[in-house]
Amino acid sequence: MPITLIVNGEERATQAAPMTPLLDVLREEFFLTGAKAVCREGFCGACTVHADGIARMSCLMPVGLAQGCAITTVEAIAADGVLSPLQQALEDHDVVQCGMCFPGMVMSLTKFLEQNAHPSRDEMKTALAGNICRCTGYERIIDAVLALTNAPQAAE
Ligand code: FES
Ligand code: FES
After folding, report:
1. Could you tell me which residue ranges the 2Fe-2S ferredoxin-type domain spans (predicted)?
2. What is the DSSP pairing of strand 70-72 with strand 10-14?
3. Domains of the chain, each with CATH number or no CATH
4. Which end of the chain is more exposed for a tag (fewer CB within 10 A), N or C?
5. Which among 89, 106, 103, 80 has a CA at the least distance from the CA of 147?
6. 147 to 102, 126, 152: CA distances (angstroms)
7. Looking at residue 19, what is its pLDDT?
8. Measured in angstroms, how far is the CA atom of residue 30 from the centroid of ligand 2?
9. Measuring from each residue's beta carbon to the nearest atom of ligand 1, which residues come in under 6 Å?
10. How far is the CA of 68 from the centre of ligand 2 (A)?
11. Judging by DSSP bridges, how do beta strands 48-51 and 54-57 pair with one another?
12. Going by C-beta distance under 8 Å and a sequence separation of 6 or more, which residues neighbour residue 131?
């Protein structure tokens, strides 16, 4: 019996075994390769997606648990090819190095900023704890996000 899920607003089905990592189904069946397979052990955050509005590491989520879930991947963050404000801020500050961590960073930070629109520097450091950047660009990422959230248009 297929497992059905809503991926980026579209109903999708897979015959994958229920314990197959969601990450593998997204990448290998649905060709959504934004979520990266790096550690596959829940340490790096490169595979982060949103599942029913919660940031989850898709390498640790069996696809059987995603039955009926709304899954959002990084491919859906830029609507109609227009970068989200977060993506634009990261781009404007030229923070991307190899880029391997960035899909996960974007997914984690998008969810974080929904919950805390004006984070402090320390809160940003905590928010990034689950996303490892091997190029060690953390300070520039934080600078970019704080520039976005402290911009006049971001003020409440
Ligand atoms: S690939 Fe999932 S946490 Fe690293
Ligand atoms: S930019 Fe290379 S791992 Fe983060």
Report:
1. 1-77
2. unpaired
3. 3-76 (3.10.20.30), 85-154 (1.10.150.120)
4. C
5. 89
6. 18, 17, 10
7. 98
8. 24
9. 37-40, 42-47, 57, 59
10. 32
11. antiparallel
12. 44, 45, 46, 48, 101, 104, 105, 108
Q: What is the amino acid identity at position 94?
A: D
| Residue 116: pLDDT over 60 | yes
Instruction: Indicate the residue type of 130.
Output: G
| Ligand 1 atom with minimal separation from the 48 CA | 2
Cα distance between residue 77 and residue 138, in whole Å: 21
In whole angstroms, what is the distance from residue 58 CA to residue 45 CA? 9
pLDDT in tens, 32-74: 999 999 999 999 999 999 999 999 999 999 999 999 999 999 9
- Pocket test of ligand 2: the residue of 107, 135, 142 to mutate, having most ligand atoms within 8 Å of its CB, is 135
In ligand 1, the atom with minimum distance to the C-alpha of 43 is: 3
Q: Which atom of ligand 1 is nearest to the CA of 40?
A: 1
What is the number of other CB atoms lying within 10 angstroms of the CB of residue 151?
A: 11
